[in-house]
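Design a sequence for this backbone.
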């Protein structure tokens, strides 16, 4: 902001609170709730082929690049257009017969009316565009301050292909944050009632559309806008009338509008070099946000800004005091400079970085489910069923999924000489050779099995960009429990893990996830986080304990 008089800040809105700010009709669907990962790409390809053109909106360039690769793979006959191709006119895209327009961070200013485009993909929600917003969203969990921006971007984005009252388009939502926002009644009540009603119809279809044929039939009925669609249209109109009776005003938005004057005061004082006035403005800002527990993450940021001011004032004791306050308010600690804060005061709330990264990853996964209990049940059942199989492929897929639920970045490389699974958090890497199809657990581990595990750490070093100070552990999962003397030379650096330990980890993890899901749904994020930290530690499935467990039995100690 620039050229502002801090004492006279007004919000000018084109729309009244609760007004419908959209035109046309959308069929909003959630493909990831209908289909599993093995079939969804085929469904998406068939869906795209129903229309000559599709619009894909992404929040960032990296996500756009991922979609580009996917689309090139599943619909190679479609030409991909980008922002540079439509800078002057949409005509190159709107006149194409097999075209897909991919845009990053563009949720307004795109007009595709009538038959220009009737299919739109929302890939991930635009909760944080750019590094500053991503920092506040992902590191500080200051989600409340972005709710209003997300609402605006959603409404703008949903209107790109429905420009008139009789216009219509299908809209598909993909991404991990859908459950955190769109599946929450309290969030949807902040949207225009018509969009809320369209989403409600989409949610209702999840239980009815179970295969590709019924999916495509539903879309065809919508595109034809005939008798088959009329019942759904009547349902949306009825729901819109009912929901308009219960529209909400975002309380966090009102709070931020009150606090913005002090935030601008802070910036002006900072630019003028008046540290004292800047500190006073920051204090007033913190006091206003202190009235709302949901703004803890943002309060952490303002405490950190005061700590920075104190450094400029050469008051290092005050800098440490407010740095500590920032840590106490922030749910995520890794962004803070641990060389500055007083460890004695915050030992009970700061956990090892490996563990903290795990906690944040697990919470991110669980938040993605929102209120979708059936989706969690479906995906967890795949883990449970897979780990009970002897078939290598089924077991390894489930094993990778278990690692993800435990907060690891996991992969299952394919090809000769590759690990069966790779788990990674921060600088800790665990590479697994899995022998699930064991007929005689009383016999010795064959030398060939040991050799397969022996080079897995070298494979990761060669094929992945790993820092020199990273730790890599080779783990052999096998029901056989000893090695004969002739194979002793190949055992160095390999650890043995009994499959029953994996079963135990799975059981503990399931109980923890269910408990924390309940906390996220019925309590607060802070309560869910504290519960997760406690349960992971007490069940010894935190990343630090798991690392010790994986390396507890060196294979060389089993030579007999």
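Sequence:
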């Amino acid at each position: 902001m620039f050229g502002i008089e801090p004492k006279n800040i007004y919000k000018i809105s084109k729309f009244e609170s609760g007004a419908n700010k959209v035109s046309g009709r959308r069929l909003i669907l959630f493909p990831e709730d209908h289909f599993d990962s093995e079939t969804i790409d085929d469904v998406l390809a068939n869906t795209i082929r129903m229309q000559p053109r599709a619009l894909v909106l992404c929040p960032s360039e990296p996500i756009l690049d991922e979609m580009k690769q996917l689309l090139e793979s599943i619909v190679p006959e479609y030409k991909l257009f980008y922002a540079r191709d439509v800078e002057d006119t949409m005509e190159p895209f709107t006149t194409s017969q097999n075209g897909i327009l991919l845009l990053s961070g563009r949720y307004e200013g795109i007009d595709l009316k009538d038959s220009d485009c009737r299919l739109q993909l929302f890939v991930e929600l635009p909760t944080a565009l750019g590094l500053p917003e991503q920092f506040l969203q992902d590191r500080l969990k200051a989600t409340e301050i972005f709710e209003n921006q997300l609402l605006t971007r959603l409404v703008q984005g949903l209107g790109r292909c429905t420009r008139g009252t009789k216009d219509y388009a299908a809209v598909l939502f993909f991404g991990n944050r859908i459950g955190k926002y769109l599946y929450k009644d309290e969030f949807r009540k902040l949207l225009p009632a018509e969009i809320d009603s369209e989403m409600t119809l989409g949610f209702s279809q999840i239980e009815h559309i179970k295969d590709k044929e019924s999916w495509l039939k539903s879309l065809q009925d919508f595109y034809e806008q005939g008798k088959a669609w009329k019942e759904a249209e009547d349902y949306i109109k009825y729901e819109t009338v009912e929901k308009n009776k219960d529209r909400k005003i975002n309380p966090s938005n009102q709070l931020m509008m009150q606090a913005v004057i002090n935030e601008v005061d802070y910036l002006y004082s900072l630019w003028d070099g008046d540290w004292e006035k800047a500190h006073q403005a920051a204090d007033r800002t913190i006091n206003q946000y202190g009235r709302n527990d949901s703004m803890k993450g943002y309060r952490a940021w303002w405490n950190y800004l005061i700590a920075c001011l104190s450094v400029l004032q050469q008051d290092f004791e005050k800098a440490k005091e407010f740095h500590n306050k920032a840590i106490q308010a922030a749910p995520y600690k890794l962004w803070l400079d641990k060389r500055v804060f007083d460890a004695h005061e915050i030992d009970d709330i700061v956990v090892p970085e490996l563990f903290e990264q795990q906690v944040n990853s697990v919470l991110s996964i669980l938040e993605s489910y929102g209120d979708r209990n059936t989706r969690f049940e479906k995906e967890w059942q795949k883990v449970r069923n897979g780990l009970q199989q002897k078939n290598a492929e089924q077991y390894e897929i489930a094993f990778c999924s278990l690692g993800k639920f435990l907060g690891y970045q996991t992969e299952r490389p394919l090809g000769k000489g590759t690990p069966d699974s790779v788990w990674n958090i921060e600088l800790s890497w665990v590479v697994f050779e899995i022998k699930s199809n064991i007929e005689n657990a009383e016999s010795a581990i064959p030398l060939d099995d040991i050799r397969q595990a022996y080079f897995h750490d070298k494979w990761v070093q060669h094929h992945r960009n790993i820092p020199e100070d990273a730790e890599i552990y080779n783990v052999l999962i096998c029901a056989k429990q000893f090695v004969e003397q002739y194979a002793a030379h190949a055992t160095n650096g390999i650890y043995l893990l009994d499959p029953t330990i994996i079963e135990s980890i799975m059981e503990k993890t399931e109980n923890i996830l269910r408990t924390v899901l309940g906390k996220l749904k019925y309590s607060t994020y802070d309560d869910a986080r504290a519960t997760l930290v406690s349960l992971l530690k007490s069940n010894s499935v935190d990343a630090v304990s798991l690392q010790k467990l994986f390396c507890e039995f060196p294979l060389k100690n089993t030579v007999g």
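The two ends are 73 Å apart (CA to CA).
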